[in-house]
Amino acid sequence: MNGSHYALLGLGFGLVFGTTRITHFAFGPVYALSAYGCWFATALSAPLWLAAAAGIATGALAGVLSYLVVYRPFERDESPALVILIASLGLFIVLENAIGVVFGTDTKVVPAPPSGVLLWGPLVVTGAQLAQVAALAVIALALGLYLTRTRFGKAVLAMSDNPEMARIVGIDTLRVSIAAFALGSAIAAVPACLILVKDGATAHMGFIAVFMAFVAVVVGGIGSLRGAVAGGLALGLVESAGMAKIPTEWQNSIAFVVLFVVLLARPRGLFGGR
Amino acid sequence: MDYVLHVLVMVALYAILASSFNLLIGYAGLFALSHAAFFGVGAYATAILAAKLGVPFPLPTLAGIAVTAALGIVVALPALRIGGDYLVIVTLALQVVVTATLLNWTGLTGGTDGIRAIPRIELFGARLDTPGSFLPLAVAVAALCFAIAWRLGASPYGRALKAMRENEAAAQAVGKNIVAMKLSVFAIAAALASVAGSLYAHYVSFVSAENFTVELTIYLLAMVILGGTGNLAGSLLGAFILAVLPELLKFVDMPSDVADKLRQMLYGLILILILRWRPQGLLPESASAHHYRAPPERAPVDAPVEAAALEGRGLERHFGGIAAVAGLDLTIEPGRITGLIGPNGAGKTTAFNLLTGFLQPDRGEVLYGGRSLKGVKPHRIVRAGVGRSFQDLKLFTHLTVLENVLVALPRQRGDYLAYVYFAPWIVRAEERRNLARAMAILEFVGLGARAGELASELSYAEEKLLAVARLLATGAQALLFDEPLSGLAPNALAKVFPLFRRLAASGRTLCIIEHNLDVIRELCDRAVFLDEGRKLAEGTPEELMRDPQLSGRYFK
Questions:
Q1: What is the pLDDT of residues A160-179, one digit of tens each?
Q2: Closest residue of A to B225, CA-based?
Q3: Is B309:B351 a contact under the CB 8 Å cutoff?
Q4: Does residue B273 belong to any structural domain of this protein?
Q5: Residue B452: which residues within 8 A CB-CB, separation 6 or more?
Q6: Which ipTM value was assigned to this complex?
Q7: Which of A46, B182, B192, B510 has the fewest CB atoms within 10 Å, i.e. is most exposed?
Q8: Is the backbone peptide bond immediately before A80 cis, with ω within 30 degrees of 0?
Q9: How confident is the model over A26-67, as pLDDT tens digits?
Q10: Among B194, B211, B228, where does a domain finish?
């Protein structure tokens, strides 16, 4: 279950990173912001599906604004990748604290929707868990179709393959970048809304999210979206397997072990990548 | 008054953290996001030893240094072969693990409660329990740490760090062991951060995991960027400004947690704005121009040397399914200039990479003077006498012309920290000799007048000359030049030709990759024709050019 959560995060982060080469640390607070957008909508007594749509829209908007307001000017000046990375850390801390200032530091919760418990042989599955897995399947499939079947989707893939060449053959890289930020942030908004329903949202939830997303991408192989999904699923699986032996509060450290082992054994990630 | 003194103590601690962080980011170009973790481990080491076991100052500090330096080395390991994004994520992961450990290993770290009642330092019978009494110690230790960082940055080792930052492959090509450099600079930066952590623990007598999060690293990053990367004085300034500025927020009436968040937003904003409008920081990295005064007595650069033949036997190298070099036998004799020609994709540069250890052959071996270079790392091969230049030059563009040559000189004891710290007079004497040598080499290639300028300010032809000078400086006797002359105008060529001839006449083993057949005919004694990874022909340039089959292949 955590696997599909990480896989979605990895997919969103990988889409942004692969296409624009921007190490978008503010991906974390943007993810948190999506959860807050969803919460805010429920607080205005919107039904859950509408609130989720609001959360996704919030994420997409915040993602695109991050790109246009902060990253784009650096890109135009052809700043080195490291400079943009540092700027993204600056944006990370600005957004994270802005959320805290505006919404306060308490955990935001929404009234849990009626979600049945399914008994499937020896397996016990809750509604939220099912929704998460279903969300991954639907999004991964839809994104796959979009990227391979539509003209614009192919432009995204082309740019993640070679941005310089993409520009030369006449792809509008600005539009593709904006789309990558919108899509990537919207994808991450889905697990954000689900986590809001399950555990509630806090201003600091973004750090672990972007960390896990980054790890999933590196484990899967930088530049490979399939790898990001596989990396996220692998992280979740190892974590669940470890959970039997290791107390819950250490679960973030498991990611470190996975990362360490993968980087030592297969420095280019499970799926090759760049 | 106590309040002002407290701020000053914090400035001293931040000065240690920011300047050590700058060594990693600004000098070595290693973008690590684990500085708060190193700081925290140092603080907790002191807290545990002093509060729980009653170990007196300064023993906990020393223990913290050892633990943190080891941690720095361990975390650098997986990121050694691959830099950039991988180092970022590995160091971030370390931060996550350290936070988890501090929060969850309750028996050792007190968990979410942290560790309280850490004993104050007692010095000369006085108990340092007020900001005023602690300040002299904090300033003294900060000054010591800063001196350590400063000495490092200003030494030949620091220059090598900057070269590594500019280009790792080129740093290896001039004989630097970048693995050892990365590990040692990580260890030192981590150890210095740990000292600050130890002082902090004694000073506030309470540590808690939330004081050592990634937000602190970003705060320190803002100090380094604001002050200027690659300039340690800048880090002092940055630490001072960013420690004092937010205190002014305290005079605005608002709840303290909101003030804290606004403070952090301020750091983030400063970070973005400074990158946008003044990325070099308030005090930019300075080119050291004092190097000019080199003593007049200089050995001639083209004095005769004993060189040997460089030989490749049955070299094979595949990329995926493609054989870039397929069974290449090649002998480059000393005392003359061998030209390597062939169409694009013939495997010329791959052959260079195999000969100089930048690639290992799938099959076959390389011998220099009859000695096998199998499995020898590039920086050792250049020390053994086989050096190479790069087609894309890979100059250290943010170093001066003189520094580009200085850093390449062989057997520098100033590259070793033991000499840097414990025998500075030896390093100083060596540096004077090296200056003379470097100036002699620059004058040999005709760049003497440009010595104090940044390499990025050179013209195209001058850049090519500097690449030659840098390769000469390594002291290698076998010199492999990858297209040293391409794109040069005839008058520039006329200046460069004699240099190559004099080097060959001095007994050195020269090999150049070149596309221009006129240049090959003019300059080379021998020419080797390569195509599809094999040697097709060898002979004098005239012989090769008379062969209609070869010219057919060349111009196909």
A1: 777 778 878 878 888 889 99
A2: A86
A3: no
A4: no
A5: B287, B289, B291, B292, B400, B401, B402
A6: 0.88
A7: A46
A8: no
A9: 999 999 999 999 999 888 888 888 888 999 999 999 999 999
A10: B211
Which tens digit of pLDDT belongs to each residue from A140-165? 888 888 888 888 888 888 887 777 78
DSSP-assigned letter for residue B48 = I
pLDDT for residue A259: 79
- Please tell me if residue A68 touches chain B, with a CB cutoff of 8 Å: no
What is the model's pLDDT at position B90?
Answer: 86
- A171 part of a folded domain: yes
| Distance separating alpha carbons of residues A262 and A241, to the nearest angstrom | 17
Please report which confidence band the pLDDT of residue A274 belongs to, taking 50, 70 and 90 as the band edges: very low
- Tell me the per-residue pLDDT of B101-147, one tens digit each, with 9 for 90 and over: 888 888 788 777 888 878 888 788 778 888 888 999 999 999 999 99
CA-based radius of gyration for chain B: 28
- Contact, A98 vs B258, CB < 8 A? no
Query: Domain of A16?
Result: 2-111+124-204
**In angstroms, rounded to a whole number, what is the distance separating the alpha carbons of residues B376 and B380?**
6
The answer to whether the beta carbons of residues B12 and B137 sit under 8 Å apart is no
Residue A165 lies in a domain: yes
Q: B250 to chain A, minimum CA–CA distance in Å?
A: 16
Quote the domain boundaries for residue B397. 391-474
Cβ neighbours of residue A141 under 8 Å, at least 6 residues apart? Answer: none
Amino acid type, B276: R
Domain count, chain B: 3
User: In one letter, which amino acid is B57?
Assistant: F
Q: Do B275 and A260 touch (CB under 8 A)?
A: no
Residues of B in contact with A269 (CB under 8 A): none
CATH number at residue B329: 3.40.50.300
Same domain, B207 and B355: no
Q: How many angstroms away from the CA of B121 is the closest CA of chain A?
A: 34
Instruction: With respect to residue A145, please indicate whether it lies within any of the assigned structural domains.
Output: yes
A201 DSSP β-pair partners: A108
pLDDT for A123 equals: 57
**A104 has a chain B CB within 8 A of its CB:** no
The rounded distance, in Å, linking the Cα atoms of B346 and B317 is 13
Q: Which segments within chain A are labelled E, that is strand?
A: 117-120, 123-126
Whether residues B135 and B118 share a domain: the answer is yes
Mean pLDDT of chain B: 89
Check A263 against B85: CB less than 8 A apart. Answer: no
Distance from the Cα of B86 to chain A's closest Cα (Å) equals: 8
Whether residue A50 is contained in a domain is answered as yes
